[in-house]
Amino acid sequence: MDFRFTAEQEAFRRDIQTFLDAELPEPPDLPDDGWIVGYDREFSKKVGAKGWIGLTWPQEYGGQGRSYLDRLILTEEFLKRGAPVASHWLADRQMGPSILHYGTPEQKEKLLPGIMSGELCFCIGMSEPGAGSDLAGLQTKAEEDGDEFVLNGQKIWTSFAHVADYCYLVARTNPDVPKHKGISEFIVDMNTPGIPVRAVGHFTGAHHFNEVFFDQVRVPKSALVGEQDRGWYQIASQLDYERSGIERLMSNYLLLDAMQDYVRETGEIRRETVRHRLAQLYIEFNMGKFLVYRVAWLLTQGIIPNAESAAAKAFCTEYEQRLAQTASELMGMHSLLMPGSPQARLHGRIARAYLYAPAYTIQGGTSAILRNIIAMRGLGLPPG
Ligand SMILES: Cc1cc2nc3c(=O)[nH]c(=O)nc-3n(C[C@H](O)[C@H](O)[C@H](O)COP(=O)(O)OP(=O)(O)OC[C@H]3O[C@@H](n4cnc5c(N)ncnc54)[C@H](O)[C@@H]3O)c2cc1C
User: Fold this and answer.
1) 93: phi then psi, degrees, rounded to nearest 5
2) Which of 185, 242, 247, 284 is catalytic?
């Protein structure tokens, strides 16, 4: 088996590196997890101008028609540098593919060009105070009224709702059927009256998620994506895409490099326990990479990964937590310094990473839920 990339893929990688050398000579002083926290619409527009948003989408819609492996190379290079890609990340990864698959010709025409140019930012309105892992239990209602739907309810943990142009909203359209069967998806213009957004603070100091309220919000019927009441089945495959990218492995990659620099500079590298812990992280990083590459390979074969995505996300996000934990242990008291402190080594990256780390195994499906998927759909075990 040949694991090497092709000459074209290597050339593409160099092209991305050249772009990043010019646009991002230093990693931005952002919390790790730049794909979800690093919002910079101007940077996204530059990525869009390169044709790198919608890389895998069909050329008839303005995409590049390139492979999922090419997209993996692109995202890997962005994450290595901590690039502030959050403004376009969700739309590029999820909303665009959903619109391509389920959207009307009007939705495609209206939204895909703005996503690809990096001008549009989407947020995802799935989770609610009483519906996270049990998403099908959501209570936000969309009731038909003439040519419109009327939305009422509340979402929470909605990353970028405070800056997004559109919300990809999941709401209940039929309360009289089993809960999985009465759900639909909508694209809601965030400027519609009746959508107050309230910030939810994060203890790293970053603000990316919010509470979003829908109070008698009227949207046209054309806001519905796909089939009414069939939203649950649409969401299921979107989550498989959402879970499987290399961002689930490399959110805090900069920490790995920074930690090596630190232990070399301080001479800690000569201690056997330090060397072994770094070596262990290196082994786990490479195992995670194989799991993620396998998912990308399945996608290139036209197979939607399911238990494979769950396995990749469970392993990789737990690795990200071990990386943050190891970094804070190796750096001792230094790791307590927060950003802004003059003595803070690595701009407080360790402290932030440590505080942020619990999120990795929660966002996009908790590790417990992923293990349920692996057990039932991967191994064919009966439900507990
Ligand atoms: C950084 C971050 C960003 C996010 N961004 C968004 C966003 O943009 N949009 C959005 O809609 N949501 C977002 N979320 C929300 C996220 O999807 C939910 O937090 C997640 O699905 C878990 O739901 P919950 O928080 O309600 O926890 P719960 O579902 O209440 O889970 C609590 C605990 O119970 C366990 N548990 C629950 N059910 C089971 C079960 N059946 N078997 C075994 N254990 C179980 C869980 O593993 C967990 O440990 C974000 C979350 C984070 C951390």
Assistant:
1) -80, -40
2) 242
